[in-house]
């Protein structure tokens, strides 16, 4: 068999592996994400029952229980150091060769540590952990079925997208998150398994938990085009407070790690702070899903909304800064809903377009925090169950994104990734791997011979696929937009090569 036909065969075989692998990854990741979501929901219900009839004796017993859980979470984190926080930076580190997640310890630590964090009332979300659970389980499956290193990265990405899809009942947003945030690419080698896995995971979620959007309140009335100024206002406010949130979270996560006390003490203190907030109003605790649903049906004064926003912001900062297992996705959306409710009361009042403002606030602050406006638009549209509000949601997300850029607010997950891997450098791998890269049409290295390019770390470009022709390049080969490169490199060089080529496929 000649080289061209061998490469054609290998490429077709890879495509088939990605389709079927995406299906099984979506099934497995969807099941563990749904189980995690169900478990946290039941623990939230149990916690609310405890707060409904609080006594001094019960407070003391809860403090003792919280201390025991903090010690257990600390031990789990010692056993699996990459299971703390949201898990999204860790998955990105795995994909870029900066981390080597131990599947079984991470799955156990993330699931049970996250469950204990939820029961204690820490204001951490389920979505980040669902992404890491899905991606880590996909890695385990890849090892079990002897997938190549390249195929494992595709499956891990698909598992991460499936985790978000199951957590929010948003399959398109799940796939887009993996592509826009984890790889910043839309190559079909990642699109296919991510979409397949996300749809399958969403089917699992619908089959077990019911066919409903993430939130029960729809945007029934379309915001008139003459009120386009309203999404602009929400976008500006959301962009500002998203920047404040990012700066506070990075400050807390950096400084709290340096406190001269054991980590279990830091986690326990965060739990105590959550307990005090729960004694004031237990609706403030947890990821925030219940608070968002309550806002949709209950009128709340501006003073209380401001107080809730400030308290939730502090609780998220301290909860995440403690290093506990839990994410920030849903807590950020909760802050956005509070902003939307407040601005609606200040600008309009009444009931008209109230639900619209809640969703607009979510889109605004998420776009500012994550710096992924497309994800924010699609996620809010899927959560609300309608695409009819695309103009207003898009306007809000883009305005918030621009405001965040003007305020020099970096994407939160990239900042957390930098803090975890670029500074500490605690993982280092020398393994050789194959990776596909897609050449963007506006790359500055087009039409320049390969021998004149300063490609970092000098990888081997094994093949170039241009339209339907695959060939082996030489020193005089020039690249064109749309070329698909198969590159042999060290895993630790993947991040530099992704930055250089501009698009990893």
Features of the shown structure:
disordered N terminus; 505 residues; 18 helices; 66% helix; four-stranded antiparallel sheet; mainly alpha; 4 strands
What does this protein structure show overall?
The protein is mainly alpha-helical and 505 residues long. Helices cover 66% and strands 5% of the residues. The chain contains 18 helices and four strands. It has a four-stranded antiparallel sheet, sandwiched between helices. A hairpin with a 2-residue loop joins strand 2 and strand 3. Helix 1 (3-52) packs parallel to helix 8 (188-209) and helix 13 (329-347) packs across helix 14 (354-370).
Short description:
This protein has helices at 3-52, 56-79, 88-95, 103-120, 127-144, 149-168, 171-183, 188-209, 229-255, 263-280, 289-297, 302-321, 329-347, 354-370, 373-384, 390-406, 412-422, 494-501; strands at residues 432-438, 460-466, 469-471, 484-490. The protein is mostly helical. The protein has a 4-stranded antiparallel beta sheet, with helices on both faces.
């Amino acid at each position: 068999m000649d080289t061209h036909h061998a490469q054609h065969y290998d490429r077709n075989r890879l495509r088939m592996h990605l389709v079927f692998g995406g299906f099984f990854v979506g099934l497995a990741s969807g099941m563990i994400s749904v189980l995690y979501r169900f478990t946290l929901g039941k623990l939230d219900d149990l916690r609310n029952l405890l707060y409904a009839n609080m006594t001094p004796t019960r407070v003391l017993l809860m403090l003792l229980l919280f201390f025991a859980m903090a010690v257990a979470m600390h031990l789990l984190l010692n056993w699996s150091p990459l299971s703390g926080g949201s898990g999204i930076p860790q998955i990105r580190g795995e994909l870029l060769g900066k981390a080597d997640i131990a599947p079984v310890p991470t799955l156990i630590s993330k699931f049970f540590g996250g469950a204990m964090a939820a029961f204690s009332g820490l204001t951490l979300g389920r979505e980040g952990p669902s992404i890491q659970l899905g991606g880590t389980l996909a890695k385990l499956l890849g090892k079990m079925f002897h997938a190549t290193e390249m195929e494992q990265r595709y499956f891990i990405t698909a598992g991460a997208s499936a985790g978000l899809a199951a957590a929010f009942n948003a399959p398109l947003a799940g796939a887009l998150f993996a592509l826009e945030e984890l790889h910043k690419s839309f190559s079909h080698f990642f699109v296919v398994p991510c979409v397949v896995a996300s749809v399958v995971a969403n089917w699992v979620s619908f089959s077990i938990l019911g066919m409903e959007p993430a939130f029960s309140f729809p945007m029934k009335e379309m915001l008139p085009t003459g009120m386009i100024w309203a999404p602009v206002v929400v976008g500006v406010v959301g962009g500002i407070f998203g920047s404040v949130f990012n700066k506070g979270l990075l400050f807390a996560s950096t400084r709290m790690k340096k406190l001269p006390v054991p980590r279990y003490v830091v986690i326990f203190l965060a739990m105590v702070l959550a307990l005090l907030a729960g004694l004031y109003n237990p609706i403030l605790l947890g990821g925030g899903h219940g608070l968002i649903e309550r806002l949709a049906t209950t009128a709340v004064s501006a003073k209380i909304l401001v107080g809730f926003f400030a308290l939730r912001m502090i609780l998220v900062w301290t909860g995440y800064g403690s290093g506990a297992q839990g994410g920030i996705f849903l807590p950020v959306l909760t802050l956005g809903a509070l902003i939307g409710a407040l601005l609606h009361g200040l600008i309009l009042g009444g009931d008209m377009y109230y639900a619209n403002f809640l969703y607009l606030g979510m889109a605004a602050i998420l776009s500012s925090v994550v710096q992924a406006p497309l994800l924010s638009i699609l996620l809010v549209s899927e959560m609300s169950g309608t695409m009819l509000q695309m103009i207003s949601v898009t306007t809000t997300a883009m305005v918030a994104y621009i405001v965040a850029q003007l305020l020099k607010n970096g994407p939160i997950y990239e900042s957390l990734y930098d803090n975890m891997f670029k500074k500490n450098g605690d993982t280092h791998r020398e393994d050789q791997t194959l990776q596909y890269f897609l050449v963007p049409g506006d790359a500055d290295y087009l039409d320049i011979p390969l021998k004149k390019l300063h490609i970092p770390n000098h990888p081997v470009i094994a093949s170039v696929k241009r339209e339907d022709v695959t060939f082996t390049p030489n020193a005089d080969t020039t690249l064109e937009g749309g070329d698909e490169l198969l590159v042999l490199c060290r895993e630790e060089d993947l991040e530099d090569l992704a930055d250089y080529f501009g698009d990893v496929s």
